[in-house]
């Protein structure tokens, strides 16, 4: 990297954080004859990209849009990292929360809302998403946001590495990994299921009542609903797509009664037509085969000694 | 010399013009044909209407469009002529005829194309003919040599370069007969003369026959090598004179001459002429790659053929006049019939339009499988080359059935002729139960009896020519014949296959190229020079077997065949130092008596090979001759055993072993007993491969055959008991089914199941539980999963109250992406196995499908993948498991082979990216679709065939379509009557078999075409693997990262090349399983706190059996189990989730197997996706850890990523390597 880059053309500030280099990485990078000059000159840094977030949504006011969050980022370590920057310029900015951060992409797809709206909380958060590896950082008020933004801008123009803010990763312990194998706590599981099912049943009940009470649409028609219909899922959320496995399958129409009864070889012209057709089919296939052979020949598929 | 200046085209194409216009060479040979008037070209006019009424059925069902309407042939004829002007009548005729006469149009076109390819170039023929004429003229110049006594002969050659190639034994000094040279009758014979020769990159040979004039012989000269010796001197004199003449003509600059045993027959040396490169002589035919054999023959009909019948004695040792000398007799007799057979074949060729093409096809088919006209008595496959093929065809054109009925008709197409011969070879036994006899008479007017099949076997392959009294198959040993039969059967089945195009399997693949792939096992036998067997080679053996080589090969073959019996399908013995070419300065090759190094190739019958007992005859009567011979054959291994049915039988008992096949044990024992005390038999390859399979930590596992499925049966038993209990539980909804779907139920887990070995990633075996149907399942996915869990909680509660010996716990399951609510009930059984139970309801599928339709457009593909995952796990898995369980029973070697293949994949860090099902489907390929090879009969062979397939699979263009059915028992109609008709159809299928039908095949093909239309380079889905279970072909192969798929192909290529170039040995086999870390961008070394080897149920490789350390119980507190689980797996999983878009991480899935000596090591490798290898434009949604290089461009911030990884796996990671 030769010149210092403080911001990207599309308005993102590039905010570097100095990393505490791991010895294991260092020793791996070191090659015989390779002096340590390089690593001393410039410590590794993580770059976050930030921009003021503009949204009409009430809930997303006073937000910074963050791109490329470091490993295992959460509100606390983010606050800690940014506090160093704010301190440098002596400004005060109060952070309230980190929104839509989904580091491992677990919630990229919300199956629940795609299958039914029964369980949706109607909160916009549920439908809102940001691209992967991005998040929104909300400040308590616009003043905080402005303060933060100006100190970030100042910080981004710094070119001495010594003044960079530090970022410390949090390392999960061995137990964290091993714990993935631990059995679920039965009592917790029971409790969770009980409460969930209770909520679900209540919602379902509600939905059924709504459905059963006659729904009148804009044109004044009443929707007729069977008495066992619990909700409008099946009506509203239709399965438009076919099974993707059958996407390519051709549908063969079963012959109708008329087809079955009609004689195909009654008139002389029918027989003649059929013959003609057969011959042309035969010829077509012959030509196709010839083409295929040509293609195979061009690929040298006929060399028995290859 | 005018006739010599023929154009090449004339000589190759215009057969009819040949006898009248041909040069002197050809004229001599063929002039009699004209006088005999045999060349009546078969008329192909409409009147003859291709006398193949019987083959009408031949027109293939395959051609939908071309389905014949037989009823109105004439009418069609009419229509064709009056039909639309666009279609030329000729086109239609060609199309119709090929559909009828060939398997299908495409097959015929392929044959045409192939014949073009293997044709000898006209320019080459022209070139070599020039030399042949020159040679003819030169031969005429050789001066005659008056009859000379042996002494004078010896003194004549003293001091000369050329030696006399006397056969063993040399003529005694006392012999009275004289030797001499008189101008021979010269003619061109063999396939070159018949114009049936094919191009062969190794060189094509041209046979020139010099027939010795009969004045040189006495009537009794066929006795005691007399004629043989006379010929040797004749040849030596001729050679000497020829070299002088060549010198004179300045031809010796580029000509090389050597002696050569014709067809490996030590009684028949011939002179071979080859060319060196260089020089500008017009006679140098080096580029045409020919070699010319000058064969010296005896005059036809001079010796009394009756005295040379195979059962006569023609070499008198003292007073012995009874020992049969079939090989000697054949050698003498066949030396006098070369020209006769040329005429016979020429006659047939004139009568049969497609004879030449069929000969060429047959020749190619034979060479691809390693067959030739060479004698198979001195080892190898042989005794059946293009000559024998052509003679058999001629015989079958004159009959060949039981009643002398015709097997082939003159009007047949080349395809029909070829198929007919394959069928005949496949179905008619010419060795033990019967033989074929025919008349090679050249006179057409005489009303000859036709050839016929006689149900009398001579225990040697026999096609007997009544005219010349020659058994055409004399050069063929019984084992060689059996092997030919095996291949013919296979090919006949392929020819009858209507669904797949088997053309390349039949003709294009050279099986002989790699013996490791062709044969299941290879043994090296070292015989000490002074062995029993060499001593046994006495005078009687000498005249019977002619050479020591023949004798030794015969002995080994017999011993091995008896000892192995049903355990093998075929056997081939080769003498390593076998030579049949030698310098003209030598009497014979240097090492004719060196039989110390022998190689034995075996095709295994896996259904029998590992059986513990070799059963002999019943012990009814102590002195029953069979019993006695059994006991003498087996020596002290033979013992009496009582079997379950009460019978007492002579038998031998063997022990199985995890590292050595029973076959190699038997051979080592029996060779020591019958060949030599210190005979050394080695088969390192099998051992090396078998030792690669992870050895389970079970009692006596080192003596368990690799085919033993006992450990898997125990899991199954445990499951059956558990499912019995589950069905009895009192639940709100009763259980409809409990389906086993884990890989242990189909015997394919990398490690064998070992009780309480819960570190093994496959320890918990998947099971699907279905309740009776209910409309009440929630119509929302989270709640549905919760409801399922509620039911599982009920199951757990009830099970604990009724069967408290089971331990249970719940765990989250991640097999369906984005469905975070799947919970499984894990049950640990008292006998130490574990099952993971998940619930399937009829609602699931609907919900996943609904999710696809409701999703935003850009996430739809992702949801389709989710749906595929769900289908694979929940819906298709039971069928897959059932299919493979059945296949494993039909192919006993499949389970060990697939386990080794999985280990290979895991050692190269690929296994974690592929689903088990996909791996199994790829691994079954060489089993269900073995052609042109046979179903693998050994671990190494199966593995190599998978690697071979992968290295050659061009997945961009070719789908893998598998017919997952048990091996085919083709009904060949073994009753003799089956060869009666001219019916070429195989009676395929007993109705039970469920092969893929043509329409299913077409549907799958079209699925593939559509898939590739969208993604021609295979960037999304590489491996299209379809079967009846999954016609879509993408169920198990979606979601494999492209670099991983290409890496698999590349690795297989490297591996296969390695084996091709360096063979199989300790180094190469080890190298095969060593991962290449240099190919990755970076490597992270990982060490786990605990060893996972023993707790995965894997024994130390050194065979160090410490059974005490085996876990014998689950921990009291089940959460302690997590301490012996693999943390690196979770680390890699999260790394892949975090860096999904920019880096692909791989690691060993089985650290217990591939994790170093203790099983506590692992590596994580990173491949940076190509798009991130160079700077790219910054975008907010680029999802990668980058740093800016300019206002617009960014690059991957590798250093930051490495530090992130180091921090993430802080306690696990021990080091980094960067490439």
Automatic annotation (TrEMBL), chain A:
Belongs to the RRP7 family. Pfam families: RRM_Rrp7 (PF17799), RRP7 (PF12923). PANTHER family: RIBOSOMAL RNA PROCESSING PROTEIN 7-RELATED, RIBOSOMAL RNA-PROCESSING PROTEIN 7 HOMOLOG A-RELATED. Residues 9-179 form the Rrp7 RRM-like N-terminal domain. GO terms for molecular function: rRNA binding. InterPro entries: RRM_Rrp7, RRP7, RRP7_C. One of its GO terms (cellular component) is UTP-C complex. The keyword Iron does not apply. The keyword Coiled coil applies. Residues 185-305 form the Ribosomal RNA-processing protein 7 C-terminal domain. Residues 272-299 form a coiled coil. One of its GO terms (biological process) is regulation of ribosomal protein gene transcription by RNA polymerase II. Keywords: Coiled coil. This is LADA_0H01266g1_1.
Automatic annotation (TrEMBL), chain B:
It is found in: Nucleus, Nucleolus. The keyword Kinase does not apply. GO terms for molecular function: RNA binding. One of its GO terms (cellular component) is small-subunit processome. It comes from the Eukaryota. Residues 9-20, 36-46 have a biased composition (Polar residues). Residues 59-76 have a biased composition (Acidic residues). Keywords: Nucleus, Ribonucleoprotein, Ribosome biogenesis, RNA-binding, rRNA processing. The keyword Cell wall biogenesis/degradation does not apply. Its main location: nucleus. Pfam families: Nrap, Nrap_D2, Nrap_D3, Nrap_D4, Nrap_D5, Nrap_D6. Residues 206-351, 354-508, 517-675, 688-889, 891-1075, 1078-1214 form the Nrap protein domain. GO terms for biological process: nucleolar large rRNA transcription by RNA polymerase I; regulation of ribosomal protein gene transcription by RNA polymerase II; rRNA processing; tRNA export from nucleus. Residues 1-88 are annotated as: Disordered. InterPro entries: NOL6/Upt22 (IPR005554), Nrap_D1 (IPR035082), Nrap_D2 (IPR035367), Nrap_D3 (IPR035368), Nrap_D4 (IPR035369), Nrap_D5 (IPR035370), Nrap_D6 (IPR035371). Belongs to the NRAP family. PANTHER family: NUCLEOLAR PROTEIN 6, NUCLEOLAR RNA-ASSOCIATED PROTEIN. This is U3 small nucleolar RNA-associated protein 22.
């Amino acid at each position: 990297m030769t010149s210092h880059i403080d911001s990207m053309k599309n308005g993102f500030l590039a905010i570097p954080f100095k990393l505490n280099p791991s010895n294991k990485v260092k020793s791996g990078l070191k090659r015989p004859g390779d002096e340590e000059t390089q690593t001393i000159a410039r410590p590794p840094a993580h770059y976050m990209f930030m921009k003021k977030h503009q949204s009409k949504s009430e809930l997303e006011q006073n937000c910074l849009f963050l791109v490329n969050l470091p490993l295992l980022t959460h509100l606390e370590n983010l606050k800690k990292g940014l506090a160093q920057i704010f301190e440098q310029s002596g400004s005060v900015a109060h952070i309230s929360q980190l929104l839509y951060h989904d580091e491992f992409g677990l919630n990229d797809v919300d199956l629940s809302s795609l299958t039914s709206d029964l369980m949706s909380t109607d909160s916009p958060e549920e439908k809102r998403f940001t691209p992967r590896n991005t998040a929104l950082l909300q400040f308590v008020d616009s003043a905080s946001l402005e303060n933060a933004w100006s100190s970030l801008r100042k910080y981004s123009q710094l070119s001495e590495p010594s003044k960079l803010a530090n970022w410390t990763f949090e390392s999960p312990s061995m137990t964290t990994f091993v714990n993935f194998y631990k059995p679920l706590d039965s009592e917790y599981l029971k409790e969770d299921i009980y409460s969930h099912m209770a909520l679900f049943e209540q919602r379902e009940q509600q939905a059924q009542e709504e459905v059963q009470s006659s729904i009148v649409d804009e044109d004044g028609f009443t929707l007729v609903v069977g008495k066992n219909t619990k909700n409008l899922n099946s009506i509203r959320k239709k399965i438009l797509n076919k099974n993707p496995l059958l996407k390519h399958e051709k549908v063969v129409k079963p012959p109708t009664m008329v087809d079955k009864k009609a004689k195909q070889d009654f008139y002389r012209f029918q027989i003649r037509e059929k013959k003609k057709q057969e011959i042309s089919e035969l010829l077509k296939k012959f030509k196709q085969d010839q083409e295929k052979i040509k293609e195979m020949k061009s690929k040298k598929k006929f060399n028995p000694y290859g | 010399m005018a006739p010599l200046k023929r154009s090449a085209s004339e000589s190759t194409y215009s057969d009819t013009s040949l006898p009248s216009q041909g040069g002197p060479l050809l004229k001599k040979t063929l002039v009699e044909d004209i006088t005999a008037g045999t060349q009546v070209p078969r008329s192909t006019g409409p009147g003859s209407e291709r006398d193949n009424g019987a083959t009408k059925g031949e027109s293939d069902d395959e051609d939908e469009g071309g389905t014949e309407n037989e009823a109105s042939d004439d009418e069609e004829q009419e229509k064709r002529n009056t039909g639309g002007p666009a279609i030329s009548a000729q086109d239609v005729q060609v199309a119709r005829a090929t559909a009828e006469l060939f398997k299908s149009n495409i097959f015929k076109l392929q044959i045409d194309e192939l014949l073009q390819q293997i044709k000898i170039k006209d320019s080459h023929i022209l070139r070599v003919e020039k030399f042949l004429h020159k040679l003819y003229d030169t031969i005429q110049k050789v001066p005659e040599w008056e009859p000379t006594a042996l002494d004078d002969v010896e003194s004549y050659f003293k001091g000369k370069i050329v030696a006399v190639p006397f056969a063993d034994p040399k003529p005694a000094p006392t012999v009275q007969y004289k030797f001499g040279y008189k101008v021979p009758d010269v003619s061109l014979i063999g396939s070159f003369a018949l114009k049936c020769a094919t191009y062969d990159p190794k060189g094509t040979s041209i046979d020139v026959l010099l027939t010795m004039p009969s004045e040189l012989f006495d009537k009794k000269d066929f006795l005691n090598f007399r004629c043989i010796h006379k010929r040797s001197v004749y040849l030596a004199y001729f050679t000497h004179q020829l070299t002088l003449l060549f010198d004179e003509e300045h031809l010796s600059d580029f000509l090389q001459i050597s002696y050569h045993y014709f067809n490996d027959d030590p009684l028949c040396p011939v002179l071979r002429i080859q060319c060196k490169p260089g020089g500008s002589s017009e006679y140098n035919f080096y580029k045409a790659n020919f070699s010319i054999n000058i064969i010296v023959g005896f005059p036809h009909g001079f010796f009394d053929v009756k005295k040379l019948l195979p059962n006569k004695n023609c070499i008198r040792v003292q007073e012995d006049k009874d020992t049969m000398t079939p090989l000697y007799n054949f050698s003498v007799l066949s030396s006098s019939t070369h020209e006769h057979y040329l005429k016979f074949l020429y006659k047939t060729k004139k009568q049969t339009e497609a004879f030449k093409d069929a000969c060429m096809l047959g020749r190619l088919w034979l060479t691809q499988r390693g067959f030739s006209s060479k004698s198979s008595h001195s080892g190898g496959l042989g005794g059946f080359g293009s000559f024998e093929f052509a003679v058999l065809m001629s015989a079958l054109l004159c009959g060949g059935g039981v009643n002398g009925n015709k097997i082939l008709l003159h009007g047949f197409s080349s395809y029909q002729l070829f198929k007919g011969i394959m069928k005949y070879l496949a179905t008619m036994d010419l060795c033990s139960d019967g033989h074929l006899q025919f008349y090679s008479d050249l006179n057409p007017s005489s009303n000859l009896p036709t050839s016929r099949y006689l149900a009398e076997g001579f225990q040697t392959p026999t096609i007997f020519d009544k005219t010349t009294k020659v058994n055409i198959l004399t050069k063929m040993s019984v084992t060689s014949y059996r092997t030919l039969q095996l291949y013919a059967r296979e090919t006949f089945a392929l020819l009858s296959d209507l669904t797949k195009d088997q053309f390349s399997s039949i003709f294009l693949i050279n099986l002989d190229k790699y013996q490791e792939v062709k044969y299941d096992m290879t043994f090296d036998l070292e015989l000490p020079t002074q062995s029993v067997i060499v001593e046994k080679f006495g005078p009687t053996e000498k005249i019977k077997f002619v050479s020591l080589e023949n004798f030794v090969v015969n002995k080994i073959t017999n011993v091995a065949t008896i000892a192995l019996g049903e355990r093998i399908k075929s056997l081939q013995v080769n003498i390593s130092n076998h030579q049949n070419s030698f310098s003209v300065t030598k009497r014979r090759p240097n090492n004719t008596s060196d039989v110390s190094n022998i190689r034995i190739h075996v095709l295994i019958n896996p259904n029998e090979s590992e059986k513990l007992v070799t059963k002999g005859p019943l012990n009814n009567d102590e002195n029953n001759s069979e019993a006695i011979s059994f006991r003498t054959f087996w020596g002290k291994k033979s013992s009496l055993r009582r079997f379950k049915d009460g019978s007492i039988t002579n038998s031998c008992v063997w022990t199985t072993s995890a590292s050595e096949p029973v076959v190699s044990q038997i051979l080592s024992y029996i060779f020591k007993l019958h060949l030599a005390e210190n005979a050394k038999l080695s088969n390192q390859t099998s051992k090396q491969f078998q030792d690669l399979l992870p050895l389970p930590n079970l009692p006596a596992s080192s003596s368990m055959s690799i085919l033993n499925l006992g450990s898997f049966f125990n899991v199954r038993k445990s499951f059956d008991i558990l499912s019995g209990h589950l069905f009895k539980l009192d639940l709100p909804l009763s259980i409809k089914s409990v389906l086993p779907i884990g890989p242990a139920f189909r015997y394919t887990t990398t490690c064998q199941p070992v009780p309480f070995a819960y570190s093994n990633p496959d320890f918990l075996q998947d099971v699907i539980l279905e309740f009776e149907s209910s409309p009440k399942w929630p119509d929302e996915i989270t709640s549905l999963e919760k409801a399922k869990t509620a039911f599982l909680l009920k199951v757990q509660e009830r099970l604990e109250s009724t069967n408290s010996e089971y331990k249970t716990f719940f765990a989250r399951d991640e097999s369906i992406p984005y469905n975070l609510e799947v919970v499984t009930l894990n049950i640990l059984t008292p006998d130490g196995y574990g099952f993971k139970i998940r619930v399937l309801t009829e609602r699931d599928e609907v919900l996943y499908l609904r999710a696809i339709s409701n999703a935003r457009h850009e996430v739809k593909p992702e949801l389709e993948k989710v749906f595929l995952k769900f289908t694979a796990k929940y819906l298709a898995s039971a069928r897959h498991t059932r299919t493979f369980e059945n296949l494993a029973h039909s192919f006993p070697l499949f389970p060990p082979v697939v386990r080794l293949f999985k280990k290979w994949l895991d050692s190269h860090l690929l296994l974690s990216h592929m689903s088990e099902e996909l791996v199994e489907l790829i691994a079954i390929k060489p089993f269900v679709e073995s052609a042109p090879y046979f179903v693998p009969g050994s671990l190494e062979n199966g593995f190599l065939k998978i690697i071979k397939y992968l290295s050659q699979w061009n997945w961009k263009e070719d789908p893998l379509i598998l017919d997952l059915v048990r091996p085919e028992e083709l009904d060949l109609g073994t009753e003799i009557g089956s060869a009666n008709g001219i019916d070429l159809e195989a009676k395929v299928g007993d109705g039970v078999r469920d092969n893929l039908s043509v329409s299913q095949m077409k549907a799958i093909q079209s699925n593939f075409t559509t898939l590739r239309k969208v993604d021609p380079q295979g960037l999304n889905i590489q491996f299209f693997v379809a079967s009846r279970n999954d016609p879509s072909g993408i169920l198990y192969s979606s979601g494999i990262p492209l670099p991983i798929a290409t890496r698999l192909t590349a690795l297989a290529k490297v591996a296969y090349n390695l084996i091709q170039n360096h063979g199989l040995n300790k180094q190469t086999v080890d190298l095969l399983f060593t991962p290449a870390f240099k190919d990755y961008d970076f490597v992270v070394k990982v060490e786990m706190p605990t060893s996972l080897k023993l707790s995965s149920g894997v024994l130390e490789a050194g065979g160090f059996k410490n059974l005490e350390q085996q876990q014998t119980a689950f921990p009291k507190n089940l959460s302690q189990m997590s301490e012996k689980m693999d943390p690196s797996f979770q680390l890699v999983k999260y790394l892949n989730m975090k860096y999904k878009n920019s880096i692909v991480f791989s690691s060993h899935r089985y650290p217990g197997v591939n994790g170093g000596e203790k099983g506590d090591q692992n590596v994580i490798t990173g491949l940076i996706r190509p798009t991130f290898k160079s700077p790219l434009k910054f975008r907010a949604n680029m999802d990668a850890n980058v740093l800016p290089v300019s206002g617009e461009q960014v690059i991957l911030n590798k250093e930051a990523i490495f530090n992130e990884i180091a921090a993430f796996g802080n306690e696990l990671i021990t080091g980094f390597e960067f490439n």
